[in-house]
Design goal:
Its cofactor is [4Fe-4S] cluster. This protein is of the alpha/beta class. The protein has helices at about 10-20, 25-40, 50-60, 95-105, 115-120, 150-165, 170-185; strands at about 45, 80-85, 110-115, 140. The radius of gyration is 18 Å and the shape is globular.
Length: about 200
């Protein structure tokens, strides 16, 4: 199968190239395992607000998630490996989301779908949590209010690309340290100048 290309350069690729790999045999096993995991993602049904309608629309024949192998939305978190947090997260729902996340088996991934799930959106008040990353670790942030089904498919493709390259053996700690060092050495955002500066 082909790997899904990224539309951006990222620090992960540079860090992976700077760390010596585990050797031919284990690398091949990692690639095979990554392909198998990336091609069989099963999301858990987790709709919280209006973004859930767009998430449901992604599964319809018009957008057809089944061509990527993601059509099985599981009702039980014990059978799912991707949580799509779609919609605003209230303080009342936070323990439920964490309980669902803790019930999912490893490895597991989280997509934060929409502005409300990612940053609280327009609801800057006491009832709504300002980003689901306060509750669960997020792998992909999907902007929009609400994001279109095509955007969710793109986020799933980016997650697939990350899973394909994810190391499963001992050198993953070295890669994580190299990524962190590259991120700390990068130019801070406040020093970056745009085209109009």
């Amino acid at each position: 199968m082909k790997t899904i290309p990224s539309k951006r350069d990222d620090l992960q690729i540079e860090a992976e190239q700077s760390v010596e790999g585990p050797g031919f045999m284990l690398t091949s096993v990692e690639k095979l395992t990554g392909l198998a995991q990336a091609r069989s993602l099963w999301p858990v049904t987790m709709g919280l607000a209006c973004c859930a309608i767009e998430m449901m629309g992604t599964g319809t024949p018009r957008f057809d998630m089944s061509r990527f192998g993601w059509e099985v939305f599981r009702a039980s978190p014990r059978h799912a490996d991707v949580m799509i947090v779609s919609g605003r997260v209230s303080h009342k729902m936070a323990p439920v989301i964490r309980n669902v996340y803790d019930s999912m088996p490893e490895p597991k991934w989280v997509i934060s779908m929409g502005a409300c799930a990612s940053s609280g959106g327009i609801f800057n008040n006491y009832a709504v949590i300002q980003g689901c990353d306060h509750i669960v670790p997020v792998d992909i942030y999907l902007p929009g209010c609400p994001p279109r089904p095509e955007m969710l498919i793109n986020a799933m493709l980016e997650l697939t690309r990350q899973i394909e390259r994810r190391p499963i053996f001992g050198h993953r700690e070295e890669i994580a340290r190299a990524v962190e060092a590259a991120a700390l050495a990068a130019t801070p955002t406040h020093e970056m100048k745009g085209l109009l500066a």
